[in-house]
Inverse folding.
């Protein structure tokens, strides 16, 4: 496929009898932010580590810039990696760490620029062992993007960061992506993925359960139509279809539906006929979090049965 | 490749000097030990050589063991468990440059330590400078390479940082015991001499003694003074030692290929 930076076809990874990744296929296109989401243990990190060249696939084909990532040589200078967990040298300062990394990074940014980009200018002289978790995470990102890679892997880059630092990382990812960098992201903050990613794949138990553009994936989830009934009016006769569910809490009604727009029309028609005036009307698509929770919930039900 | 190795060498070099335990134990301890030991030992002759030379030989071998083996095992286990090795593998550094940088650091600091011990022997204990410095340097570098390869291999079998002492301590005792430092080699029982002949420790010690005194101490035992030999002959008489050392180097590299781990051992 043209424009694909990463192509994955029928990827499987087994550890003995345990299948961590069970035949997944997807591709990541040039310049996009691609989010790989899933519950803990869904196989995201295994998948990412195969793409990064740390692990070998048991079956299937994986191509990164047309190469097998397990042969690290050809890809090393084109890829930046922020691992979910990795160590730094506590005895070096932030600036010394970047300086050391610059010596083995092609076309590296100047130290000051690298630190400024992630907001660590003030901590340049601080030894890593005295830095907070958030500051170390910023240094991780500074090191991974030091050589202006074409492809950046971010495995839960914002876990453990405060809101301000998360916003900063989000802005940075957006900026890097605008410069043409392809980004593969995993995160537990679904609003972050929804905000950043053009395309998304959601994994559950080693399989991809849904994937596509953000709009497609959100469209597949159940939307919400919410409103308040006037005092004295009941919900009798509300047009609620077979797959839709209505929850009434006091005067507040919420209809969960695959077709929020159509249901909203029907609800307004119903109110008009009955001469009711609805307040607080809210019609919206599913959020990524709701799509995700639906999938996680379905998975949990399958486990129980 | 070379540029990557050198850049990693600069990094590991800085880290060595920033780690008080490494500087204290691996670098300074053998030097201090070498400074004190001859002062508390009675002088005289051991196996045809001045006792001070036997002591300095032992101190040099001990320094090689602490630097080449103990420091590297500790460093690789620690960096693996802390996920530093994993991070380095995500950079442009080739695997061999990651090893190369660490080994160059050990080699550079080993030569520095050797120079300090030789100077100490000369100026504090009045031991003549080595007769065959080239042989001394080659022996020390090859010995360090063997110990380093052993360290890389063994590190993969050690589950956690606190456990390195399980291999480091016996290794150090072997180095001290078999280098003739604690006990004259001529008084080893036959079986121990046979075992020692195929281990690297005594072989390195032979090379160091031969280089220091410019006499053929290879396979030497007893009170006799062996004949003087020139620089080139020093290298030639060492052939059994070279064989043993190269065999250990090859064996260790094979073991390293099988055993070495880049990522933490869990559980």
């Amino acid at each position: 496929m043209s424009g694909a930076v990463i192509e994955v076809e029928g990827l499987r990874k087994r550890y003995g009898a345990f299948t961590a990744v069970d035949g997944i296929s997807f591709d990541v296109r040039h310049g996009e932010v691609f989010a790989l989401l899933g519950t803990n243990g869904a196989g995201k990190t295994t998948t990412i580590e195969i793409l990064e060249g740390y692990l070998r696939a048991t079956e299937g084909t994986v191509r990164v810039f047309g190469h097998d990532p397990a042969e690290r040589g050809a890809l090393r200078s084109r890829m930046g990696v922020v691992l979910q967990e990795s160590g730094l040298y506590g005895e070096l300062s932030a600036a010394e760490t970047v300086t050391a990394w610059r010596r083995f990074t092609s076309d590296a940014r100047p130290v000051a620029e690298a630190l400024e980009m992630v907001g660590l200018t003030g901590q340049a002289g601080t030894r890593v062992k005295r830095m907070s978790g958030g500051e170390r995470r910023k240094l991780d990102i500074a090191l991974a993007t030091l050589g202006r890679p074409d492809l950046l892997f971010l495995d839960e880059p914002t876990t453990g960061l405060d809101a301000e630092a998360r916003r900063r990382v989000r802005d940075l990812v957006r900026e890097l992506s605008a410069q043409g960098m392809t980004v593969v992201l995993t995160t537990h903050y679904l609003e972050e993925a929804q905000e950043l990613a053009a395309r998304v794949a959601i994994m559950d138990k080693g399989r991809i359960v849904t994937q596509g553009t953000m709009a497609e994936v959100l469209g597949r989830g159940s939307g919400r139509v919410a409103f308040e009934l006037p005092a004295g009016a009941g919900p009798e006769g509300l047009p609620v279809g077979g797959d839709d569910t209505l929850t009434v809490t006091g005067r507040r009604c919420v209809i969960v539906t695959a077709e929020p727009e159509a249901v909203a029309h029907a609800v307004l028609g119903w109110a008009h006929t009955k001469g009711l005036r609805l307040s607080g009307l809210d019609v919206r698509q599913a959020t990524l979090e709701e799509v995700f929770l639906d999938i996680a919930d379905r998975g949990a039900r399958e486990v129980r049965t | 490749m070379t540029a990557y190795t050198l850049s990693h060498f600069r990094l590991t070099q800085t880290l060595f000097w920033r780690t008080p335990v490494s500087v204290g134990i691996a670098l300074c301890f053998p030097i201090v030990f070498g400074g004190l030991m001859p002062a508390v030992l009675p002088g005289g002759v051991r196996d045809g050589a001045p006792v001070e030379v036997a002591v300095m030989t032992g101190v040099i071998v001990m320094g090689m063991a602490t630097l080449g083996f103990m420091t590297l095992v500790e460093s690789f286990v620690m960096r693996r468990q802390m996920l530093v090795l994993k991070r380095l593998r995500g950079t442009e550094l080739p695997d061999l440059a990651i090893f190369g940088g660490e080994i160059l650091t050990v080699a550079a600091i080993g030569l520095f330590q050797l120079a300090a011990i030789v100077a100490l022997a000369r100026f504090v204990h009045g031991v003549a400078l080595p007769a065959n410095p080239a042989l001394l340097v080659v022996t020390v570098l090859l010995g360090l390479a063997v110990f380093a390869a052993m360290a890389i291999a063994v590190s993969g079998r050690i589950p956690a940082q606190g456990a390195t002492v399980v291999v480091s301590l016996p290794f150090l005792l072997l180095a001290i015991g078999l280098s003739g430092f604690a006990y004259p080699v001529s008084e080893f029982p036959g079986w121990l001499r046979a075992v020692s002949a195929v281990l690297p420790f005594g072989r390195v010690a032979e090379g160091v003694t031969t280089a220091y005194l410019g006499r053929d101490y290879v396979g030497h035992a007893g009170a006799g003074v062996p004949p003087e030999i020139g620089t080139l002959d020093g290298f030639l008489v060492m052939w059994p030692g070279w064989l043993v050392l190269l065999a250990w180097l090859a064996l260790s590299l094979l073991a390293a290929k099988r055993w070495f781990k880049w990522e933490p051992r869990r559980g």
Remarks:
- Residues 288-304 of chain A form the longest helix (17 residues).
- The interface with chain B takes residues 52, 54, 72-73, 76-77, 79, 81, 83, 85-89, 91-92, 96, 100-101, 103-106, 143-144, 147 of chain A (CB under 8 Å).
